[in-house]
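**Sequence with structure:**
===
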Amino acid sequence: MAPSSSRPTSHLLPLLPTLLVSVLLASAAGGNWSGNELPELGGDDGLHREILRDETVLRLAELGKISDGEGYLERTFLSPASIRATAVIISWMKDAGLTTWVDQMGNIHGRFEPANSTKEALLIGSHMDTVIDAGIYDGSLGIICAISALKVLKVTGKLQRLTRPVEVIAFSDEEGVRFQTTFLGSAAVAGTLPESILQVSDKSGTTVQDVLKMNSFEATATAISQTRYNPESVGSYVEVHIEQGPVLEALRYPLGVVKGIAGQTRLKVIVDGSQGHAGTVPMKLRRDPMVAAAELVVTLERLCKEPNKLLAYDEECSCFTEESLAGLVCTVGELLTWPSASNVIPGQVNFTVDIRAMDDKVRETIVTSFSRLVLQRCDDRLVDCRVEHKHSAPATPCDPELTSQLKRAARSTVSAMPGRAAAAETAVLMSGAGHDAMAMAKLTKVGMVFVRCRGGVSHSPEESVMDDDVWAAGLALVNFIEQAAAPEPPVVADEQDAAAVAEL
């Protein structure tokens, strides 16, 4: 549940060191805040509020209503709602003056191609799929803000002046809800999606290949390989995303830039015991996988809260600094039992494990240590256990030069917004959540902008972003695109030429 509007944000400040936030403060100026409320940035002053705020917010709400669920938001890979959303997003891209198409993995593309341009493209994107019972901003904000930014350039006559191709991509799958494998869309564009993905099935037994065929895609390895972009044709990828954490709210900044994305490992733990009658099997004779699983969940929690107390000496626990361990988080998000009856001792229990850390060595060590502890605890309880590795991704650093450009764009945007003092501060954050930028980093250099969200709440209908923060994100993209894809300024020979250039 998101905190009420009367709850102060100061309670979040002690969390900042733990979240590995680097904040560059050149002065104490910045934000007009009063009481416990987050400030609104009112007015327009030629800052394209009608498109970047009002229309964008309306479109976020419209896309949020396109759902496979009744009374909640759910939109998974190539579901009926996803197909309906595709048509809507294409119409918005065309409205911004972009050429559109859908590739063989269901990704939606909208591109502006300057005449006779040989420069590498700037890609901007995020994902159109959602978790179950989702909020309306996760993924969608990045897509719609990018479309709105290009629409502003179109209506102001600046789009045709760009010398570099700019393309918006709405990725078909990032969350991995349906097929339990993330980045189907962006991995296809990056060229890292394996052919074997076609045979992965969802809980109903339907494969990725089946779903593609049902939606009139070719569904072949060749077709998927054709989705891949040539690295030489792409200069960079940028993603705008809600922070999904409380840091920007605590700092009272609408925007921040991302230094890097945490590495992630997903495991499935399967515990087999002896199924039996709940009333007739004595406690001392039971091989109960549920109790063993409960102990393993608590063991994981302790391992990630106090790693140095459980790590073995040969795992070099002493080499980890407090800073490297600070971003470590571990989660059991799903637990299933068989046969799942109140009067039956389960025969099998399986659960998922999600381990994330900024430091890859920390993450790998925790995975190894937990796997060892699983076998030890299961031996003690006379049950059989195995650990399956489902997904692993290394930490992804963002490109320093791209990050600096995004930082300048964010700072100049906040300075220009009505009601804000000149912004000399920029928040630089690490992301604990995975993003399409992780997959796209295999193709090109990446950068990210985070947008403040209420209470840090995400993957929930309680997700909330202030309208003016949506505005700020769109305006930052406009500023960034203009500096990244606009014509190079002429070389100034002397002060007189400089004055002439300044008047242009």
Residues 45-262+396-484 form a domain with the Aminopeptidase fold (CATH 3.40.630.10). The mean pLDDT is 87.
